[in-house]
Amino acid sequence: MKPTATARPWLLTPPGSTGTLDLYCFPHAGGNPAEYARWADALPGVALHTVQLPGRGGRHREPYAGSMPELVAGFLADVPLGEGPFAFFGHSLGALVAYEITRALHIQDRPLPRRLIASAFPAPHLPRPGPPLHTLPDDAFLEAVSARHGGIPEPVLASRHLRAMITGPLRADLRLAETHYHRPGPPLPVPLTVFTGTTDPMSATAPTAWQPHTALPLTVRTFPGGHFPFRDDEPRFLRALSETLA
Length: 246
Known about the structure:
- By secondary structure, the protein is an alpha/beta fold.
- It has one domain (8-127, 183-245): Alpha/Beta hydrolase fold, catalytic domain (Rossmann fold).
- It contains eight helices and seven strands, in the order E-E-H-E-H-E-H-E-H-H-H-E-E-H-H.
- Helix 2 (68-78) packs across helix 3 and helix 4 (138-149) crosses helix 6 (160-178).
- The longest helix is centred in the last third of the chain and has 19 residues, at 160-178.
């Protein structure tokens, strides 16, 4: 799909990324879509679109989404889906966003993704690990996020300027996840694959808990390492992603 005018703010599509399958990548909390966009060359036959949420990058003048339903409604209002086969990949918070968008598509009787890949996030009905973080003061907030999830480089934590730059988007993202209330519903008629790291505190303990959320057999891909398998061993991760989409 070539992004339309309404979809363009939401999507970062690498130049030359074309294929018969549109893959929409939903980043982790505080994530940079460009980190996912560089996967395009490793996914032949896939048109890669990384999702940029309001308040980030080129959308920095827009307010953050105040809730998950608001975010889902905004995405579906602006991004046309179903012109051809498509799939969703979401990492951490992005897994929850991709799942909720898929649920909304199902409720609205709209075309569904060919596959949903939920990476590094517990099944939506499970309690979140640990107390909420988004209400903590700035310094305590970043330290707690780093301790629980990792992923914040030491040079960023050591720089007052860089800490200030990432705190707003990261806090807004965690607010989305931590204030979201899961409403039970029927399982999705969509193939669901869970990606998890062997030592990831977010998803390693119960990846099969996602099974009730799909009417089809669940598949699980396990990677050595923690919360960011694509940083621990990107070639291995991208091979698994390509195989899962095939």
